[in-house]
Specification:
It is built from seven helices and nine strands, in the order βββαββαααβαβαββα. By secondary structure, it is of the alpha/beta class. The chain has a domain of 156 residues: P-loop containing nucleotide triphosphate hydrolases (Rossmann fold, 3-Layer(aba) Sandwich). It has a six-stranded mixed β-sheet, with helices on both faces. Strands 2-1-4 form a three-stranded antiparallel β-sheet, with helices on one face. Helix 3 packs across helix 4. It binds adenosine-5'-triphosphate. Adenosine-5'-triphosphate (ATP) binds next to helix 1. InterPro entries: AAA+_ATPase, ABC_transporter-like_ATP-bd, ABC_transporter-like_CS, ABC_transporter_ATP-bind, P-loop_NTPase. Keywords: ATP-binding, Cell membrane, Membrane, Nucleotide-binding, Translocase, Transport.
Length: 236
């Protein structure tokens, strides 16, 4: 008996991107399956955001082939809510009129902000605004969710709460996910695979075991040390 293998949601083959005479993505290969959570770490300037922008269709390719699902959404480090629209309208942006309000409310409930639907963005804390940005991304049920350091500006406690929330939301919606982060712990705790990037290429691909997702477990400590070594970070 043969088992049908699902085609990956994202498939990049030899993807190249240049800015002027500088090559930022060098014949890069990448696959992400539906429901798979992939984290991408690497030194500043190695091309992480360029790759994410390319997958989002915000940057053109200079070479190679790219297959992405028809629906994708990006969540950025800053929430990018429109201040002149109430929270629910920010979430409902571009949804079909008839159901927009109800869908926005239910997405806000999913991120624990059902009672903030009528609030103005300016009245939200940083963590709340970022939860609204997540609701706005997920209400469209994208097949590809691109996260560009969405937790970087949050305090440590809020970040931990956001990790739990994102894990639950993603388990429910099952998009393919690419998270760009500078936080090695965050990458291990959230992702199924952690990729390290160097000079425009994927340098290594680490599958995260269930044990490694427990901070303090030996598997976590070992993987963390491996990733930091790959990034050239020596812990004092
Ligand atoms: N629009 C642009 N025009 C010219 N060069 C650019 C442009 N965008 C990015 N670059 C250059 O491409 C390289 C990769 O940038 P990119 O933002 O992808 O890196 P990154 O890995 O996301 O970095 P960081 O971790 O600091 O955000 C950098 O050297 C950057 O200066």
């Amino acid at each position: 008996m043969t088992t049908a293998v699902e085609a990956p949601a994202v498939r990049a083959r030899s993807v190249t991107r240049r800015y002027g005479d500088r090559t930022v993505l060098h014949e890069l290969d990448l696959e992400i399956r539906r429901g798979e959570f992939v984290a991408l770490i690497g030194k500043s300037g190695c091309g992480k955001t360029t790759l994410l922008r390319t997958l989002a269709g915000l940057d053109a390719l200079d070479g190679g082939d790219l297959t992405v699902p028809p629906s994708s959404t990006v969540v950025f480090q800053e929430h990018r809510l429109l201040p002149w629209w109430k929270v629910w309208r920010n979430v409902a942006i571009n949804l079909p009129r008839g159901t927009a309000r109800a869908r926005a409310r239910s997405a806000l409930e999913e991120v624990g902000l059902g009672d903030h639907a009528e609030a103005w963005p300016v009245t939200l804390s940083g963590g709340e605004a970022q939860r609204v940005a997540l609701a706005r991304a997920l209400v469209r049920e994208p097949e590809l969710l691109l996260l560009d350091e969405p937790f970087a500006a949050l305090d440590a406690l809020t970040r931990i709460r956001m990790h739990g929330l994102v894990r639950n939301l993603i388990a429910r919606h099952r998009p393919a996910v690419l998270l760009v982060t500078h936080d090695v712990d965050e990458a291990i705790l959230l992702a199924d695979r952690v990729l390290t990037m160097r000079e425009g290429r994927i340098a290594a691909d680490h599958r995260v075991s269930a044990a490694a997702r427990t901070r303090g477990d030996a598997a976590f400590v070992t993987l963390r040390a491996e990733l930091l070594a790959e990034l050239g970070v020596v812990e004092q």
